[in-house]
Design goal:
This protein is an alpha+beta fold. It has helices at 6-28, 33-36, 55-63, 101-108, and strands spanning 48-52, 72-83, 87-98, 115-116, 140-144, 151-155, 161-167. Strand 2 (72-83) and strand 3 form a beta hairpin.
């Protein structure tokens, strides 16, 4: 039987406790100020804001697929307003990327059934868009879904795609019986 000295056991336990504490603080820490400047930190029903700029995570939640290795994500931001009782009450994301060949083919297949934006379309109604997201629509092809929430803004040469979407709610999973 191997005996571990008490000081090593206490040290290992303290290290685990420190890592768990740091992880807990990190998860509950408010989003960085540069992400939330001008963005309401309290949402529907008293929900609270969390934000991420993890490119792969934002891409995957936005498009329901992982980015291809040759996709170059330039900027990405996802915001969620959540409550412990109701889960995600509101969400919003923005992304800018240069699609690689496989993703360009996928986009050409019109996976979301987008249609050209109506004449006179303006981005002025996009609430709290990041500074890197376009404010003008000249020199872009604009497409959107029927509701007008999912918006794709693609450079006329196809090199860069900006996209955004927003919506309300994802329920908290039901407890097991």
């Amino acid at each position: 039987m191997v005996r571990v000295p008490v000081t090593k056991a206490i040290g290992a336990g303290a290290l685990l406790l420190f890592v768990w504490g740091a992880w807990t603080v990190y998860r509950s820490a408010p989003p960085p100020a540069e992400l939330t400047r001008g963005v309401p930190v309290t949402g529907p029903g008293g929900s609270s804001l969390s934000a991420t700029t993890d490119p792969a995570a934002v891409f995957q939640k936005a498009f329901w697929r992982r980015p291809a290795p040759d996709d170059k994500i330039l900027h990405a931001e996802r915001r969620e307003w959540t409550s412990s009782a109701d889960g995600v009450r509101k969400w919003q994301w923005f992304i800018a990327f240069q699609p690689g060949p496989r993703t360009s083919e996928w986009i050409a297949s019109k996976p979301f059934g987008l249609a050209p934006a109506p004449s006179g379309f303006s981005l002025a109604s996009l609430e709290n868009r990041p500074a890197w997201f376009p404010g003008q629509v000249s020199d872009f092809r604009i497409q959107q879904d029927r509701e007008g929430h999912l918006i794709w803004i693609q450079a006329t040469d196809g090199s860069v795609l900006y996209a955004t979407d927003s919506g309300f709610g994802f329920a908290v999973p039901a407890a097991k019986p």
